[in-house]
Write a structure and sequence with these properties.
2 copies of one chain form a homodimer.
Chain A (H helix, E strand, L loop, with lengths): L1 H10 L4 H48 L7 H15 L6 H10 L10 H14 L7 H13 L1 H5 L3 H20 L2 H10 L2 E2 L1 E3 L3 H17 L17 H35 L5 H17 L9 H6 L9 H15 L6 H15 L7 H17 L2 H12 L4 H14 L10 E2 L19
Parallel strand pairs in A: 1-3
Helix pairs in contact in A: 2-5, 2-6, 2-8, 2-10, 3-5, 3-12, 4-8, 5-6, 6-8, 8-9, 8-10, 9-10, 9-17, 11-14, 11-15, 11-16, 11-18, 12-14, 14-15, 15-16, 16-17, 16-18, 17-18
InterPro entries (chains A, B): Cl-channel_core, ClC, ClC-type_chloride_channel
Main location (chains A, B): membrane
Protein name (chains A, B): H+/Cl- antiporter ClcA
Chain lengths: 435, 435
């Protein structure tokens, strides 16, 4: 009886392997729950402390405008701290990405975590235009890597651990666990997403987010975006907006690298770069006569969902952020990218048949998607911040921006896993900074 | 002046390449907007017609119970139609996945589209337990592939076209464009996601969804799931539930293949398999004395969000679906997987500290994630169907279910791109049906 034979085959010892499989998977799950709890605990706590400090210095700056005059001094302090106490941690995000790609490299210095936190807080105190994600990601990665010798991890597992650090830092600093989990998986390779760190990355992102919330630290709440009627016009407008976001993302990446290159070639003594950059920033701010573009710029981001703003806002923020980070101040690029994107979306409002808040939301995530080359993480972020109604529009805008930013990006250590277009096929396997 | 040199370098002819790049990208975008409109138009229209027919036959069956007696006759008709008019299209989803992996294979027969639609409608009319996505995906893939010679596509672009067909079919039949877009990218390889079809897939999914809506065809609306308080208990419960969902997903895949193998080895004449299967189904339904488990089962799925149901519902649906599809009736696996997952989640309610609707929602997406090996598409689906509040929990459950279903799944043509666990490292590069 073939039927009975088949039934018996299902129960045979050969199938025991699969029963065994469940035990192996369970121990794998428990192991990574344990490690993710550790990484989530440290990165979530670091993010919580960081967010509290940021809030404090931002309020202080807004009520004590004179601190802007400290820009050159703060710049010098930051430059000197990295020069004499950095132990190689000025590589920042790129050092992290390189180590994820080659997990046999040396340990990420512990000092990266406190140094980048203090430098970023100082940058925000004196009115540099910078963000948070770079700081959170570097804290997460550096703190996670200190567990490597303690947990006796092999290179393969160390790679997963570092991805967890990135995911945890990102998830907890923005309050977006899904975006954080996918960002960690997506950021080190362009054009590919591998699943070997899927479970650890999701676990750490959730735990880190939970830890930050448990410390009583909240996140900016953005309006729920109501999607417009689904027509040829709204779809076409989303694609056009996506092109603009991608081109500006590329422009931001280019400007940041250009400013950094100019400072590097013209000023040999490193601590002097952010000091002179600080003087320039001060002059520009004095000429502009406004502090709209300093710090994180959350009030302007929120305003861009509600009311038309000057069309040049995005360009000024782009320039000031490129100057701040290019000369050596510290902080992330992502919140400025949110600012640039949201105000650019706002500026497109007279030209495109989409609601103002939808354009601001699309710009918010899509400029970031183009500049960081992480379209899926940014689509998740749109859904987590603005509700699921805008998901499809955000997905389209992010994917188009990702394509139109080309092989450019804010992370020079990112490697082209698979080229975005056949035109650039020969870039495959190279890091962005080599191109 | 290095500064001026740098500025001039930015404007040099070498940079013209990048300016040129924008033109290439624009023509690439326009080309795929055009192709995606075509594929979205045909797959979205096919899904609309299919959904209307399904609605009609479901209502007819519910008011005319005697049609269940036609199960054996309908089975024979379907078997005979595939035997004598199938032109190789009985390969179904697997043929599609194999062609995506090897785009030099022969054209997908056009007859696959009408055949699978009629066979599925007939299956649902007489009370088989089946779904929709297989049908929609096969219609999308087959119709898309008819464009290959007309558009003179090379194998690489044909691969992208077929992915578009899958995305469009999936997106339009469930009304979930993001899940559809990512499903098309995720389904043919386990453990990897490549971005070469990112833009076309997103475009087609959106267009197809839009076309189905434009035909006036709607989708089932599920309740917005309110997330529970974020505690150790709720996170731990999500992980435990995810394990259950993964194990049941693996069980479903195993049962389907086992039933198919039994029919294949015991009955040589193919049209007789669904005929005899129909007799068996009729006997089982008569013994059960209920029609709760026939057809799509949408009312039970909706009920599982609201009220506790019998704990054995998921097992009976699993058995009946494996019998229906294993013997040769047509239809997808996904709606039954929604049913199995939602009722399993419902059955876990007395044991796990999560709200009923959250458990049903997690099961809905996570059993599917485990059985189809598409955790990211299912996370997007959760957000699109149940709102962004449940996103993080759904992500965790899907990822755990994906791990615990092992290298098993409902699509035998799926290839292991990168193994889920080192334990199964040697499976890499093999199709699931070879394992």
């Amino acid at each position: 009886m073939p039927f009975l034979q088949h039934l018996l085959a299902q129960l045979s010892p050969k199938k025991a392997f699969h029963r065994q499989g469940h035990g192996v998977l369970l121990s794998y799950l428990l192991r990574w729950v344990f490690i993710s709890l550790l990484v989530g605990g440290v990165s979530g706590s670091a993010s919580a402390l960081f967010l509290v400090l940021l809030e404090f210095v931002t309020q202080y700056r807004e009520t004590h405008a004179w601190v802007l005059y400290l820009l050159p001094v703060a710049g010098f302090l930051i430059g000197a701290a990295y020069q004499y106490g950095g132990k190689g941690s000025e590589g920042g995000n790129n050092l992290l990405l390189q180590t994820i790609q080659k997990p046999s490299l040396a340990r990420i210095p512990f000092v990266m975590a406190p140094l980048v936190m203090l430098a970023t807080v100082l940058t925000h105190l004196v009115g540099g235009s910078a963000g948070r994600e770079g700081t959170a990601v570097q804290m997460g990665g550096s703190l996670a890597d200190q567990l490597t010798p303690w947990l006796k991890l092999r290179p393969r597992d160390r790679q997963v651990l570092l991805i967890c650090g990135v995911s945890g830092g990102f998830a907890s600093v923005f309050g977006t666990p899904l975006a954080g989990a996918v960002f960690g998986l997506e950021v080190f390779l362009i054009g590919q997403l591998r699943y070997h760190a899927l479970l650890p990355s999701f676990l750490t992102a959730c735990f880190a987010h939970w830890v930050t919330l448990s410390w009583g630290v909240g996140h900016t709440v953005y309006p729920e975006v109501v999607p417009p009627a689904f027509t040829v016009l709204s779809l076409g407008a989303t694609l056009l907006a996506g092109i603009c976001f991608g081109v500006v993302a590329r422009g931001f990446a280019g400007a940041s690298h250009a400013v950094a290159a100019i400072f590097k070639t013209t000023i040999a003594y490193r601590p002097l770069r952010p000091a002179i950059g600080g003087v320039l920033l001060l002059l520009v701010l004095w000429a502009l006569g406004t502090t709209n573009y300093v710090g994180l710029g959350i009030p302007t981001i929120v305003a861009s969902f509600e009311t038309p703003l000057p069309g040049y806002d995005f360009a000024l923020k782009l320039f000031l952020t490129a100057l701040t980070l290019g000369c050596g101040f510290k902080g992330g690029e992502v919140t400025p990218l949110f600012f640039i994107g949201a105000t650019l979306g706002n500026a497109l409002f007279p030209w495109l048949p989409l609601p103002l808040e939808m354009l601001a939301a699309l710009g918010f995530v899509a400029v970031f998607a183009g500049a960081a080359n992480t379209p899926l993480a940014c689509t998740f972020m749109a859904v987590e911040l603005f509700g699921s109604g805008c998901g499809m529009y955000a997905g389209l805008a992010c994917v188009v921006a990702y394509l139109f930013s080309g092989h450019k990006g804010i992370y020079g250590g990112q490697v082209v896993g698979s080229s975005k277009h056949l035109l650039w096929g020969r870039d495959t396997g190279k890091a962005l900074e080599e191109l």
